[in-house]
């Protein structure tokens, strides 16, 4: 195998001894799969990078002992410009993290999104700490580039909405897959390998590792085919509705404390946070972590403790049972339980622009997952939204797109986006247009342009756009709940003291006060973004999901000891889901109306509805 055929790990170090030690340690472990290329300075590195790109090679990782100066660019930014998925590490000596100049260089490079992290030069062999960092870099690169064969292949037209939906479901579920255009040589080869030679209908086709062929499978069918459980069986102590950060935390803590837990998730593990390309400020991950990776780790943790999952299943109602509750799950199933934790999260609000409706999944996307990024290569991209999720999406898309513009209705980003993201947007050349809104668009089968209105002057003009990503608003997924579970006018669930304060105690059937996170129906709890007054952050949702288990235990204990009868709570109707709460009045300036309870500025999640996003993203 030639060095060009193998992905390259480039080592840029001026001092020969340091360069040799790094190269030797890398070659001892990685030369079967990677070509290790030593370079003595940034100018030579730039020439090698350009030559590699021109030859069609792959640069997986670059390690350099300084940023260099290439006519105003660093060697790291030059590498990213030619190879959007490359990982970049700043080589330092052991203990050099205490050097103020080195520290400032690393921090400034990371703040400008020109560096992933620092790498301590190996000082003994084998240096497993060094290799842990290297293998993490290579795993991230391999996942993003999709170079190796995948267990699942999706064959479907790029402009077909269902193709996008299936790929998004797989990506957010942590299922590696490759996407192939119908009629391509690669698609024909994959189909021939599983014995399919006839022409197939114009629908997405999913090929599995074991040779099965699925024609336009439903979400539950696809999940089951991959080995994910979709069935409901028996009873549970606790049913958790929703597998976002709050629901997963509740599942982990409840299962670890001996409760029988079933998690019902209608889409994919991770909720809105699962689509984030990188969460930089979640505790414990110094280099950041993608939303899908964080969600998959939490899912595996809950599974190890014995939590059960019903994937791609939607809860549609709650009924009172003589011994607790029954959660109705579409189409015609139900699960009996003693307690319920609602962790349904929120959805992005949709644009009220009829011209864009035909392009949903074909250039117009609600949310932003990693699967669309590479398809934006060479295109002009617009992101609507001013929260952290919008900022993270813009940075990820900027790796590939010809240009990225963040469009907000308000006067700026400072009130809704973390400063580190604003700084990175500036450093990466992402344009920010304020006081603007999208009012139209069009294209031939796929989105090609949008019409943007200046909110101050009223002027409208068409703008070239191959990808429109909408990350605004927060619509809580609570319309399916019975009316006995109190919500505010925006649909956020009331919990704890707010139940008594808002309902003047008339809607609370017990003498005791509601437990923390308990709704107006004793035994039903709410956590995360769907709860009124919650802080719309990943860390906050995880915290609520973990602490709610204490309240669940208290409720189960009072029922088991006879302190209160299970049926003493408000009787829940057997009726179909109630209509969505009345829509709030149109807000005066920002994207959506704010929740009733004020929330602090965004940090490690997308901002609240008042700030223009409301999703528990990064």
From TrEMBL:
InterPro entries: FAD/NAD-bd_sf, FAD/NAD-binding_dom, Ferredoxin-NADP_redctase_2. Residues 578-588 have a biased composition (Pro residues). Residues 559-618 are annotated as: Disordered. Residues 237-545 form the FAD/NAD(P)-binding domain. It catalyses: [thioredoxin]-dithiol + NADP(+) = [thioredoxin]-disulfide + NADPH + H(+). Gene3D superfamilies: FAD/NAD(P)-binding domain. The keyword Oxidoreductase applies. Keywords: Flavoprotein, Oxidoreductase. One of its GO terms (molecular function) is thioredoxin-disulfide reductase (NADPH) activity. PANTHER family: THIOREDOXIN REDUCTASE 1-RELATED-RELATED. This is FAD-dependent oxidoreductase.
């Amino acid at each position: 195998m030639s060095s060009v055929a193998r992905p390259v790990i480039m080592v840029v170090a001026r001092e020969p001894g340091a360069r040799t030690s790094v190269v030797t340690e890398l070659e001892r472990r990685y030369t079967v799969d990677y070509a290790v290329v030593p370079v003595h300075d940034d100018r030579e590195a730039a020439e090698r990078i350009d030559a590699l790109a021109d030859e069609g090679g792959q640069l997986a990782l670059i390690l350099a002992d300084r940023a260099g100066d290439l006519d105003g660019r660093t060697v790291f930014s030059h590498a990213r410009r030619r190879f959007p998925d490359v990982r970049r590490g700043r080589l330092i000596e052991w203990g050099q993290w205490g050097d103020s100049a080195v520290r400032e260089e690393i921090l400034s490079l990371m703040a400008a999104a020109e560096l992933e992290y620092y790498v301590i030069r190996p000082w003994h062999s084998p240096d497993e700490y060094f290799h842990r960092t290297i293998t993490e870099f290579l795993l991230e690169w391999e996942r993003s580039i999709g170079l190796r064969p995948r267990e699942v292949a999706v064959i479907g037209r790029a402009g077909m909405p269902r193709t996008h939906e299936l790929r998004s479901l797989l990506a957010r579920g942590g299922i590696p897959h490759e996407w192939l255009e119908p009629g391509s040589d690669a698609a024909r080869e994959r189909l021939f390998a599983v014995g399919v030679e006839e022409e197939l209908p114009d629908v997405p086709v999913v090929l599995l590792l074991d040779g099965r062929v699925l024609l336009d499978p439903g979400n539950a069918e696809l999940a089951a085919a991959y080995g994910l459980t979709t069935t409901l069986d028996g009873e549970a102590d606790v049913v958790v509705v929703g597998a976002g950060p709050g629901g997963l935390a509740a599942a982990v803590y409840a299962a670890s404390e001996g409760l029988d837990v079933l998690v019902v998730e209608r889409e994919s593990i991770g909720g809105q946070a699962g689509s984030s390309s990188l969460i930089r400020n979640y505790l414990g991950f110094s280099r950041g972590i993608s939303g899908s990776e964080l969600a998959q780790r939490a899912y595996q943790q809950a599974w190890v403790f014995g939590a059960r999952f019903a994937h791609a299943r939607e809860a549609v109602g709650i009924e009172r049972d003589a011994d607790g509750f029954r959660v109705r799950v579409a189409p015609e199933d139900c699960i009996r339980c003693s307690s319920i934790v609602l962790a349904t999260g929120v959805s992005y609000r949709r644009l009220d622009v009829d011209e864009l409706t035909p392009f949903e999944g074909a250039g117009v996307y609600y949310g932003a997952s990693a699967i669309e990024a590479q398809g934006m290569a060479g295109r002009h991209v617009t992101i609507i939204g001013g929260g952290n999720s919008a900022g993270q999406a813009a940075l990820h898309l900027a790796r590939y797109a010809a240009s990225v513009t963040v469009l907000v209705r308000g006067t700026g980003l400072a009130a809704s986006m973390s400063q580190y993201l604003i700084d990175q947007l500036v450093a990466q050349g992402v344009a920010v247009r304020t006081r603007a809104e999208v009012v139209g668009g069009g294209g031939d089968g796929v989105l090609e342009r949008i019409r943007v209105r200046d909110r101050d002057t009223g002027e409208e003009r068409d703008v070239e756009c191959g990808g429109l990503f909408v990350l605004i608003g927060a619509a809580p997924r609570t319309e399916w709940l019975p009316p006995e579970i109190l919500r505010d006018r925006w649909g956020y669930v009331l919990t704890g003291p707010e139940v008594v304060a808002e309902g003047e105690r008339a809607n609370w059937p017990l003498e005791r006060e509601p437990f923390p996170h308990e709704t107006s129906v004793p035994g039903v709890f709410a956590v995360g973004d769907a709860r009124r007054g919650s802080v719309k952050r990943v860390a906050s949702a995880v915290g609520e999901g973990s602490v709610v288990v204490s309240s669940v235990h208290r409720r189960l204990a009072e029922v088991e000891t006879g302190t209160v009868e299970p049926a003493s709570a408000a009787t829940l109707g057997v009726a179909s889901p109630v209509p969505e709460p009345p829509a709030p009045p149109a807000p005066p300036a920002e994207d959506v109306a704010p929740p009733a309870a004020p929330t602090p500025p965004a940090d490690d999640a997308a901002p609240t509805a008042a700030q223009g996003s409301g999703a528990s993203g990064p």
